[in-house]
Design goal:
single chain
Length: about 450
């Protein structure tokens, strides 16, 4: 993942994307290509980075001017001018690691260069596009998730309703329990009879099939034996033809006998084939018989269900008859109650009219009180707002004064530093001259001493 890169955009594309994605209307109008290329303006770049952090993380301008909680200092006024840049660098360094930019430094904010800023901005724009695409995909997934949850809730309600209906259908009323037990016993007896008959028939058919298979096998053995006999006879016939002079009458009689034998064998073969086909048809009839028995079982089950439904319907008819009789008696009593209620309604309508008149008067009084209270609240709110605005203007003026004082102090400090540096340079120059003078004096003294010593040695 660390080796992945992002596409490098051209200068025009970078400016167009910054205008469309990051800057506000007034800032986009004043923003131009000369602000970034070929010479980058640090103020414009800092504004772009701040807007990017506002878009991605939602950081406000106030956060850039706040001291970190973990850092303590007795003189926080010293960091007023440097705090926004440091906070911007910390946040952007954290943000550029997401954009696959790992060489971002504070110099890129204070003294930016065109190539590096183009690379940083292309990585930032690429991340913004990726963020928009991920957001669209997330919103689509969220909408589909909501619809799926609604469908799940609908299905769950439908399942609950179905389970309740199944429970109602499964539960047998107390009046019909005896009939239900009798019908279930009858059904079980019928099923047992049908299963017993089905097993008997299948056993009989299987016995017949096995017998007929054995008969077919025996007859096939006989056919094979007769075929072998025919083959042996033909061989003997060939051998005898070569040995014996054949009589035409005997040959004719033998041929007739052989033809009769062949016809008998053909007839036996046809009978065997017919029996085989009839047995095969019986074997093929077995599965449809099973299907018919299953159909009969299903019909019996449907008949049982119909019987239960009929018993339910008869019970409902009885209950409805009882309800009709009770309703007729209730109708008579209801008619008597209607007459009394009509009289009461007329009396209550008169009372309602009087109550409505009173309500109208009370509503008008309440509205007048509401208007008076809203006017009073608006007046108080405006007064408090004016007081707060005055306080804000006073604090802004104080902040400006403090900033100007800090700037003057910084300027004075810089001037004093320059003076001290000049003094140090002058002192260094004076010291160098003094050392040179001392060295020359020492050289002169040493040379004079040597001359005197030489003279003394000559005299001696």
């Amino acid at each position: 993942m660390d080796n992945l890169t992002f596409p490098r955009y051209s200068e025009n594309d970078i400016i167009m994307h910054i205008r469309n994605c990051l800057l506000v209307a007034s800032e986009a109008k004043s923003f131009s290509k000369g602000d970034l290329f070929p010479n980058v303006k640090p103020e414009v770049l800092q504004m772009i980075f701040m807007r990017a952090l506002q878009v991605v993380y939602g950081t406000r301008l106030e956060h850039f001017y706040m001291m970190p909680v973990s850092f303590e200092t007795p003189y926080p006024q010293i960091f007023d001018g440097f705090l926004p840049i440091v906070n911007l660098f910390i946040n952007m360094e954290r943000f550029f690691s997401l954009c696959r930019v790992n060489d971002f430094q504070i110099v890129d904010i204070l003294n930016p260069k065109a190539k590096r800023t183009a690379r940083f901005l292309s990585g930032l724009i690429n991340f913004l596009f990726f963020r928009d695409s991920c957001r669209e995909a997330y919103l689509e997934i969220q909408s589909t998730f909501k619809s799926a949850v609604e469908k799940e809730q609908q299905l769950q309600t439908a399942i609950q309703e179905g389970t309740l209906k199944l429970k109602k259908l499964d539960t047998v009323p107390a009046d019909q329990e005896a009939e239900f037990k009798e019908l279930s016993q009858d059904i079980q007896e019928l099923e047992q009879k049908l299963n017993h008959e089905y097993r008997q028939k299948t056993a009989i058919l299987q016995e017949e099939i096995s017998q007929k298979k054995s008969e077919v096998a025996e007859k096939l053995q006989k056919l094979n034996e007769q075929k072998l006999i025919l083959c042996n006879l033909k061989e003997e016939q060939k051998q005898l033809k070569s040995k014996i002079a054949e009589d035409p009458e005997e040959l004719a009689n033998r041929k007739e006998q052989l033809q009769q034998m062949v016809e008998k064998l053909k007839k036996d073969k046809q009978e065997v084939i017919k029996k085989y086909e009839s047995y095969r048809d019986l074997v093929e009839i077995l599965p449809p018989c099973k299907q018919e028995i299953q159909l009969y079982q299903k019909k019996m089950e449907t008949q049982v269900a119909n019987v239960t439904k009929l018993s339910n319907i008869f019970a409902e008819i009885r209950t409805l008859d009882d309800q009709i009789e009770s309703n007729k008696s209730e109708l008579k009593s209801a008619k008597m109650e209607e007459i009394t209620l009509k009289r009461l309604v007329t009396v209550k309508r008169e009372k309602l009219n009087t109550a409505e008149i009173k309500l109208k008067k009370t509503c008008e009084d309440i509205e007048q009180r509401k208007q008076a209270i809203t006017q009073y609240c608006c007046h108080k709110f405006q007064e408090k707002r004016e007081a707060v605005c005055e306080k804000l203007t006073a604090t802004h003026a104080k902040i400006k004064q403090l900033k100007s004082a800090i700037r003057q102090l910084n300027d004075n400090a810089e001037k004093e530093k320059l003076k001290v540096q000049e003094m140090c340079l002058n002192l260094r120059v004076g010291l160098d001259k003094y050392h040179e003078h001392l060295a020359s004096i020492v050289e002169k003294t040493t040379s004079g001493r040597e001359e005197k010593i030489a003279e003394i040695t000559k005299l001696l």
